[in-house]
């Protein structure tokens, strides 16, 4: 485990978040989607578009209950190595008043297993509980066994909901949840 910390994402982090997202997608979608689709999702143009979207999410969140947090290395120069985006739940069977959702949770593929994911999850919970949320859910690629193991080891469980992530082709996803209240 390496040292690091989590802070609110800054406008200057947007390009780094997009870089991490594209690298993570490249790693987790390889073999699940055709190479042409993967190339389109992880292209420099796609990365620029995601940077613009992350900048907007950071500087103009839809509500005060939407958060984007960044995992940062302790060493100077500081480097953003992961992020988490969370807020009110968007699924029809969830109530956004008390149910939260993680929209995106990514750690640079070369930085997994170093404690950044755990720090991000703890920081997200620390911001969601004061906002009145009681449960937290996340959609995970069915084939992402590493993320499943990580979440299940922290007390998350599948709740039976299944879906498809449409990235030009359909990729199966499952929803996991955990309780934020005691």
Description of the molecule:
β4, α4 and β5 form a beta-alpha-beta unit. α1 packs across α3. The protein is globular. A 7-stranded mixed β-sheet has the order 1-2-3-4-5-7-6. The mean pLDDT is 90. The two termini are 28 Å apart. With 182 residues, the protein is of the alpha+beta class. The protein contains 5 helices and 7 strands, in the order βαααβββαβαββ.
Key terms:
182 residues; alpha+beta; 7-stranded mixed sheet; 7 strands; 34% helix
In short:
With 182 residues, this protein is of the alpha+beta class.
Write the layout of secondary structure elements.
Blueprint: E1 4-8, H1 14-29, H2 35-41, H3 44-59, E2 67-73, E3 80-88, E4 99-107, H4 116-128, E5 135-141, H5 145-153, E6 157-166, E7 170-179
Parallel strand pairs: 4-5
Antiparallel strand pairs: 1-2, 2-3, 3-4, 5-7, 6-7
Helix pairs in contact: 1-3
Number of helices: 5
Major sheet attributes: 7 strands, mixed
Count of beta strands:
7
Order of neighbouring strands in the sheet with most strands: 1-2-3-4-5-7-6
Estimate the helix proportion, in percent: 25-40%
